[in-house]
TrEMBL record:
Species of the source: Arthrobotrys musiformis
Classification via InterPro entries: Ig_E-set (IPR014756), MoCF_OxRdtse_dimer (IPR005066), Mopterin_OxRdtase_euk (IPR008335), OxRdtase_Mopterin-bd_dom (IPR000572), OxRdtase_Mopterin-bd_sf (IPR036374)
GO cellular component: mitochondrion
Entries under SUPFAM superfamilies matching the protein: E set domains, Oxidoreductase molybdopterin-binding domain
Name of the molecule in the record: Sulfite oxidase
Record has Oxidoreductase as a keyword: yes
């Protein structure tokens, strides 16, 4: 074993690294910077020696494969610009607008938008040759590098039909924004599945298995599912998990990132108020085509400007200038629409709730803004 680099770990199973950037950093650039992106982990972060790492392709295939990273680098490379979002993003809003939920208190920052490069999963599957009916089978992604909080490893799966469809651009990613993945992002190799919840984007990927059933991992079977509203305790949830579908695609969404709730602002009638945020298309129905803002409780909506032009799998950054009156009761709401015609329809506080706080997509909202006294027109006139 002389000369072999052993994998070492950051963090522990009990206290994994979970963090999100502040809102102004989050939407500071269209392409998220590696060091400014959220981290979501269910266990410690492995630091892997790529020259030792193998990606195994097995299960119902005619040619099982064990591929070194340097081999993956020699295959045709594909790049996709895609958002990556945790299904628990916006959980904070759900628990404050509705009622308590169980999970990390994500605000709006458990999402990033990046350019991912690697080998299309369909390319690898054409080498391995699945032997079962794609319309009823699954492809499971696993990382056995470390135990996780709820299982002995981390795993997730998607339908095999999606994996085989090159249009879905399901990617075995080696790079983010033209650079090798960092250990936090899954070095040396991770899944990127555009339009699909981050939970399936398995980091430190070491096994891809073609099988009849979904992944048996706890994060596919007993989490990342939308529990019905009558389930209000963990014990009750236990009886439901096996009956519910796993989350696959993420819903149409948008949030307001700036100004922050309760911020002191100039009178918008004198200095137009810049409201900004991001929007995400639903599943494969992107790009975002429209973001609209309302200042009157959803009676009227006006279009925001998308900057720059979003693409099929990317997020959209948007901006809106408001120059009307502002009172203590003024609440701004945003809603997004995508190319597939999906639109947000639920007002915050109108009953979108599930115990795990996943898939929240009520209108974005900001309230409680205060006009700075010195910028009130009457006062300025007396100076
Ligand atoms: N091996 C492994 N892969 C994983 C996870 C994990 O805990 N372990 N977390 C998943 C979840 S829930 C999300 S949202 C994304 C987060 O990716 P990021 O940490 O690069 O933001 O990775 C996914 N892949
Ligand atoms: Mo997640």
């Amino acid at each position: 074993m002389l000369g072999r680099t052993l994998t070492w770990f950051d963090g522990t199973v009990e206290e994994p690294l979970n963090r999100e950037p502040p809102p102004e950093v989050l939407i500071g650039r269209f392409i998220s910077k590696e060091g400014e992106a959220y981290d979501r982990n269910h266990g410690p972060i492995p630091h892997i020696d790529a020259s030792e790492h193998l990606l195994h392709i097995d299960g119902s295939v005619s040619t099982p494969l064990s591929l070194p990273i340097h081999y993956l680098r020699t295959l045709p490379q594909h790049t996709v610009l895609a958002a990556l979002q945790c299904a628990g993003n916006r959980r904070h809003t759900m628990r404050t607008k509705e009622k308590e939920v169980w999970g990390i208190d994500w605000h709006n920052g458990a999402v990033m938008n990046a350019s991912w490069t690697g080998v299309l999963l369909s390319t690898i599957l054409s080498l391995a040759c699945p032997t079962i009916d794609p319309s009823t089978s699954h492809v499971a992604f696993s990382c056995y590098q470390t135990a996780t909080q709820d299982d002995g490893y981390y795993g997730g799966s998607i339908p095999l039909s999606r994996a085989l469809d090159p249009k879905m651009e399901v990617l075995i990613a080696l790079k983010m924004n033209d650079r090798d993945l960092t250990p936090e992002r899954g070095y040396p190799v991770r899944m990127i599945i555009p339009g699909v919840a981050g939970a399936r984007a398995v980091k430190w990927l070491d096994r891809i298995t073609i099988q009849k059933q979904e992944s048996s991992n706890a994060y596919q079977q007993k989490d990342y599912k939308i529990l019905p509203p009558e389930v209000v305790t963990k014990d009750q949830a236990a009886a439901y998990w096996h009956k519910l579908p796993s989350i696959l695609e993420t819903p149409i969404n948008s949030v307001i990132c700036s100004p922050s709730p309760g911020a002191e602002i100039d009178d918008p009638r004198i200095t137009p108020l810049k409201i900004s945020g991001y929007a995400l298309p639903q599943g494969c129905d992107g790009p975002i085509t429209k973001v609209e803002l309302s200042h009157d409780d959803g009676v009227t909506w006006e279009p925001a400007t998308l900057l720059p032009e979003p693409t099929k799998w990317s997020w959209a950054l948007w901006e809106f200038k408001y120059s009307g009156p502002l009172t203590e009761d003024t609440t701004f709401m945003c809603k997004a629409t995508d190319k597939g015609g999906n639109t947000q329809t639920i007002k915050p506080g109108e009953g979108q709730w599930n115990l795990r706080g996943v898939g929240y997509n009520a209108f974005g909202e900001v309230a409680g803004l205060k006009v700075k006294p010195r910028s009130l027109p009457g006062i300025e006139a007396r100076l």
